[in-house]
Design goal:
The complex is a heterodimer of chains A (about 500) and B (about 350). Chain A is an alpha/beta fold. Chain A is built from 19 helices and eleven strands. In chain A, the strands form four sheets. A five-stranded parallel beta sheet of chain A has the order 4-7-10-3-11, with helices on both faces. The longest helix of chain A has 15 residues. The chains are: A alpha/beta (about 500), B mainly alpha (about 350). Chain A: InterPro entries: Ribosomal_mS29.
Chain lengths: ~500, ~350
C-alpha cells in the first residue's frame, strides 16, 4: 500500500484552528476542542479576538460621508434639529410673563403734561352737584384701593395721562345721587339697597362708570367689593369643589375666593383693621378671640380650603347692624347668565348660579338677599366680550319698557320658540337699568380741553372742533371720542 | 481789481425785522443757503422768496441812511482787499504773516465744516401747502391764498388739500403710508389698530437720547418734544433713515454678462417707503415680549425709538446704499449735448 501522500498536517491544523477561532471565539464545545488537536494550549488562547471590537460602543458616525446629491437633482432640505438662521437662541419669557405684560395696567405717563388746576375728588365734593361736568382727579389712596380691586382695565386709556382723572358726566352724577340717597335716607326709613344693570353701547364707558361708582363709594367710607371680570368666574380656569351639605349641589372656587378676600382686605384695609369680629362664626380654622375683620379675612387667604366659610363669616360681619353700606359690583354680566364651563360629577355642565360666589352676587342683584346696612349692587354689561344671553337681553328691554311706563302692547314679549334660561330670567325679573349714553357737547368740550391741557390733543379746542369730533364719535360716545381725538387713527 | 465788498455776491441777505414776531408760530427748519437746484424729491413749485424789501447789507443801509440824512457815507466802494485773501493760497507768504493772523487762519481751518458733511441737503420734510414742516398741529396751517379766478363762486381750494379737509385725507400722509405698509391680507382695520398702538407706544416711551454720530435730519425738534408729538416722532424716524437713491442693476451693461450698478434717485414717497420697509423688517425680527394683539406694534415702536436713538441696524443699511451709490455714480451716463 502506498503511503498516503504527504499531507501538510501542521499547516492544515493551523488553518482550521484559525477558522474556528474566527468563527466562534469564546464558546467552542469542549469535545470538539478535545478531538481537534494535540496541542490544546494553542486552541484555548486564540491568537486574537474580535470581542472587544464587537462589544465596544458604536463609534460615532462620520459626517460628510454621504454621497453628494447628483448634479441637477432636487433634494429635500429639512433642517431637522437646526434652528432657523434668524431665530435667536435667547431664553423665552418665563411662564406667565407674557400674560402679565398683556394685562399690565399703567396709570401714568411721564411725558404727558400735568393739568393745572385739576381738583381731586374727596369725601365732601364727590356727592355734590357742583362737580358735574368737570374733570376730577382721583386721589392717590383711592387709586391704590381701586387698583387693588382691579377696577382699572388695561383697555382703558389711563396710560396716556399724567395721573388718573375722570369726567363727572351725567350718569356719574346720577350714580353719586344714588350713593347720597342710600347714605342719608329719608326720615324714619332704613337704608335702601339699590340694584342696577349698567347698559350702553360699545365704548360708552360702562366699566369706567363702575370705577367711578367704586371711587365715590370708597371715598364715603363704604365697603367696596368688586368682581372685576365675570368671565374669570365661569370659564373653568380655577379649581372648584362641591360645597359639603349643599342640595342641589353648589360649588366653591377656593383659590378665587381667597384672592377675592385679599383684594377686599387691600381695598378696605382701614375699616377691616379697625373693626372687631362680633358674631361667633364656626370656621374650620381657629380664630383668635377679639380678632379684627382683617385677621378673619387673612385666615381665608392663608388657607384657601377655608376661604368660602371665611367669606360667609366676613359677609355676616359686614352686614351686621351699624356697619357701613356696601358697594358690590361685577363687570361682564352676561357671562354669569348661562351655564358655566365647569362640569359636575356626572359630567353635566354646572349652571353659573350654582357657583357659590356667583350665587352670592346674583342673590343680591335680584333682591333676594337685601343689604341690611344699605348699599348698591351694580352689574355692568359688556358689548365686546359677551356671550349671547337672550334672557339678559330680554330682561334689559323689559326693564327699559318698565322705566318709561310703556303700554302693555308696547312691552316686549318673549319669543316662545326660544329656549329660556329660567334661572337667569327669574333673577333679572325686577332689576332696573342705568343706561350709559353719549356725552353732551359741553361734556365733550370739557374732556377735550383736558386732553389738550395734557398735551395729547394738539389743536385749538373750539366749537367747530368739538362738533366735528362729537359727530365722528357717534354723538359723543366717549370711547370713540378718545379714539378720534387722541388715538389719532 | 474789483471791489471786495460787493453786496450782490452775498448768497443770502440779512433781513432786518423791524418788529419781533408777536406770537410763536411753528417754523420749518430754515436752510442756511437756498438750494440752487431743485432736488428730485422736492415739489415742482419753488418756494416763494422772502420779501424783497429790507434786503440791504448793514453797511449798505448805513450808506443809504447817511445819504438821506445828508451826512458823509462810509466808504463802501474804496474798501481794499484783506491780507488774508491775498495770501490765501500762498503757503510761503503765510509764513511771513504776523503770529496773530497765522493763528486766526489755523483757527478758521479747524472750525471749518467736518470732513464728511455734504454740500447738499438730504432733508425730507413733510410739506403741506405752504411749504412748512408739519408739526402735527391742526388748524395751524398758514393760510395759502389761491389765485382769484373769476367765475368760481366759492373760490378754488388750495392744493395740496390740507389734512382733514376731505375724508380721504383724514390722517397724516406718513401715518397713511405706514398704515398701508403694515396692512396684511387687506385688513386695514387691524393695520389701523396697530398704527394707533405704535403711536401710543411712542407717546408713552421716555424721551429719546440722540446719538451724535447718527444725526437726524436737520431742523429736527429737540428730543423732549418728540413723545408728545408721536406723528412727528414717526416722521422724523422714517425721514432720517430714508435712502436718497436705490441701486438699479442694469443687466449686461458692463459687458461679459456683468450687471452694471446704476444709482437711481428716489422721490419723497419712495424714499419713505424704503425706510418703512426696512424698519418693519427689522421690527419683525425682534423678539416678542408679550402675547396678544399688540406684539407687532410694540416691536415696531421699539424699532422706531432705536432708529431715533441711532441704535438700529437700518442706519447701516442706509449708509451702505449711499456708499454703493457714490461708488456707482460714474456709471451714470448723461445724454450727450449736441
Amino acid at each position: 500500500m502506498p503511503p498516503p501522500p504527504a499531507s501538510p498536517w501542521p499547516l492544515l491544523q493551523l488553518r482550521r484552528v484559525c477558522r474556528l477561532s474566527l468563527d466562534r471565539p469564546a464558546s467552542l464545545p469542549v469535545d470538539t476542542r478535545a478531538c481537534l488537536f494535540a496541542r490544546p494550549q494553542t486552541a484555548k488562547t486564540a491568537c486574537f479576538s474580535t470581542s472587544p471590537a464587537r462589544w465596544a460602543n458604536p463609534s460615532p458616525k462620520k459626517k460628510g460621508l454621504v454621497a453628494a446629491p447628483k448634479r441637477g437633482t432636487r433634494t429635500l432640505n429639512v433642517k431637522r434639529g437646526k434652528r432657523a438662521s434668524g431665530q435667536s437662541t435667547a431664553r423665552p419669557p418665563a411662564v406667565g410673563e407674557r400674560k402679565a405684560q398683556r394685562k399690565r395696567v399703567v396709570l401714568s405717563n411721564n411725558n404727558a403734561l400735568p393739568v393745572p388746576g385739576l381738583v381731586d375728588l374727596d369725601k365732601s365734593n364727590a356727592l355734590s352737584d357742583d362737580i358735574r361736568g368737570h374733570v376730577m382727579g382721583i386721589p392717590d389712596l383711592a387709586v391704590d384701593a381701586l387698583r387693588a380691586v382691579d377696577a382699572f382695565k388695561p383697555t382703558q386709556g389711563w396710560r396716556l395721562f399724567r395721573r388718573p382723572a375722570t369726567l363727572i358726566r351725567t350718569e356719574t352724577a346720577r350714580l353719586a345721587g344714588l350713593v347720597r340717597d342710600v347714605q342719608a335716607p329719608a326720615e324714619g326709613q332704613a337704608r335702601a339697597t339699590v340694584r342696577r344693570i349698567l347698559t350702553g353701547d360699545r365704548l360708552s364707558g360702562k366699566s369706567t362708570l363702575l370705577l367711578q361708582g367704586l371711587a365715590v363709594a370708597w371715598l364715603q367710607g363704604w365697603v367696596v367689593v368688586n368682581l372685576p371680570e365675570a368671565k374669570d368666574l365661569v370659564n373653568g380656569h380655577t379649581d372648584y369643589a362641591p360645597l359639603p351639605g349643599s342640595r342641589p349641589a353648589q360649588y366653591t372656587q377656593d383659590t378665587y375666593t381667597a384672592s377675592l378676600l385679599s383684594q377686599m382686605v387691600a381695598a378696605n384695609s382701614a375699616l377691616f383693621a379697625a373693626t372687631r369680629v362680633v358674631t361667633k362664626p364656626t370656621l374650620p380654622v381657629p380664630l383668635p378671640a377679639t380678632a379684627t375683620l382683617k385677621q378673619l379675612a387673612e385666615l381665608g387667604i392663608a388657607s384657601p380650603e377655608a376661604s368660602w366659610p371665611v367669606f360667609v363669616a366676613l359677609w355676616a360681619e359686614l352686614t351686621h347692624p351699624g356697619r357701613p353700606p356696601v358697594m358690590l359690583t361685577l363687570d361682564g354680566l352676561s357671562h354669569i347668565m348661562r351655564e358655566s364651563d365647569y362640569l359636575s360629577a356626572d359630567v353635566k355642565p354646572i349652571h353659573s348660579h350654582d357657583l357659590t360666589l356667583v350665587r352670592h352676587f346674583v342673590d343680591h342683584l335680584s333682591g333676594k338677599v337685601p343689604l341690611p346696612n344699605g348699599g348698591i349692587v351694580l352689574a355692568a354689561t359688556s358689548t365686546s366680550n359677551a356671550p349671547s344671553s337672550p334672557a339678559l337681553d330680554f330682561s334689559v328691554l323689559l326693564a327699559k319698557a318698565r322705566a318709561r311706563n310703556a303700554h302693555p302692547s308696547h312691552t316686549p314679549t318673549w319669543n316662545p320658540y326660544r329656549v329660556v334660561d329660567q334661572r337667569a330670567m327669574e333673577c333679572l325679573a325686577n332689576v332696573d337699568t342705568l343706561n350709559v349714553s353719549g356725552l353732551s357737547k359741553e361734556e365733550a368740550r370739557t374732556i377735550m380741553e383736558y386732553y389738550a391741557q395734557s398735551g395729547l390733543l394738539r389743536a385749538k379746542v373750539d366749537e367747530k372742533l368739538v362738533a366735528e369730533k362729537w359727530s365722528l364719535a357717534g354723538m359723543g360716545n366717549v370711547g370713540e371720542l378718545e379714539r378720534t381725538s387722541i388715538r389719532l387713527v | 481789481m474789483p471791489s471786495r465788498l460787493n453786496i450782490l455776491s452775498f448768497a443770502r441777505p440779512i433781513a432786518y425785522r423791524p418788529k419781533p414776531q408777536a406770537s410763536w408760530r411753528p417754523q420749518p427748519p430754515v436752510r442756511a443757503v437756498p438750494s440752487q437746484y431743485r432736488a428730485f424729491a422736492d415739489s415742482k413749485q419753488p418756494p416763494a422768496n422772502e420779501t424783497e424789501t429790507n434786503n440791504l447789507h448793514v453797511s449798505e443801509e448805513a450808506a443809504k441812511t447817511a445819504e438821506i440824512m445828508g451826512e458823509t457815507p462810509p466808504a463802501v466802494e474804496e474798501k481794499g482787499t484783506p491780507v488774508e485773501e491775498v495770501v490765501k493760497d500762498d503757503k510761503d507768504a503765510q509764513k511771513n504773516l504776523p503770529k496773530v493772523m497765522q493763528d486766526a487762519i489755523k483757527a478758521k481751518q479747524s472750525n471749518s465744516a467736518p470732513k464728511g458733511s455734504r454740500s447738499y441737503s438730504t432733508m425730507t420734510t413733510s410739506v403741506t401747502g405752504a411749504g412748512e414742516l408739519d408739526m402735527g398741529l391742526i388748524d395751524f396751517q398758514s393760510p395759502a391764498t389761491p389765485p382769484a379766478i373769476p367765475g368760481a363762486k366759492f373760490g378754488l381750494p388750495s392744493l395740496p388739500l390740507p389734512q382733514g379737509s376731505n375724508y380721504k385725507r383724514r390722517y397724516d400722509v406718513v401715518v397713511d403710508q405706514v398704515t398701508n405698509l403694515l396692512m396684511r391680507h387687506g385688513e386695514k382695520s387691524a393695520a389701523q389698530r396697530n398704527m394707533s398702538l405704535i403711536l401710543q407706544h411712542l407717546r408713552t416711551s421716555p424721551i429719546p437720547t440722540i446719538n451724535p454720530t447718527r444725526p437726524l435730519i436737520p431742523g429736527a425738534p429737540p428730543p423732549s418734544h418728540l413723545p408728545l408729538n408721536p406723528i412727528l416722532y414717526l416722521t422724523l424716524a422714517i425721514d432720517s433713515v430714508a435712502p436718497l437713491m436705490r441701486i438699479r442693476n442694469q443687466k449686461g451693461a458692463a459687458g461679459g454678462g456683468v450687471a452694471l450698478q446704476i444709482p437711481v434717485p428716489l422721490g419723497q414717497r419712495q424714499r419713505r417707503r424704503a425706510a418703512i420697509q426696512w424698519i418693519l423688517g427689522a421690527a419683525s425680527k425682534r423678539r416678542d415680549k408679550g402675547s396678544g394683539k399688540g406684539g407687532l406694534a410694540q416691536k415696531v415702536g421699539e424699532e422706531l425709538i432705536s432708529v431715533v436713538e441711532g441704535r438700529s441696524g437700518v442706519w447701516d443699511r442706509r449708509n451702505a446704499i449711499h456708499k454703493q451709490g457714490v461708488a456707482a455714480r460714474s456709471n451714470i451716463v448723461l445724454p450727450r449735448k449736441r
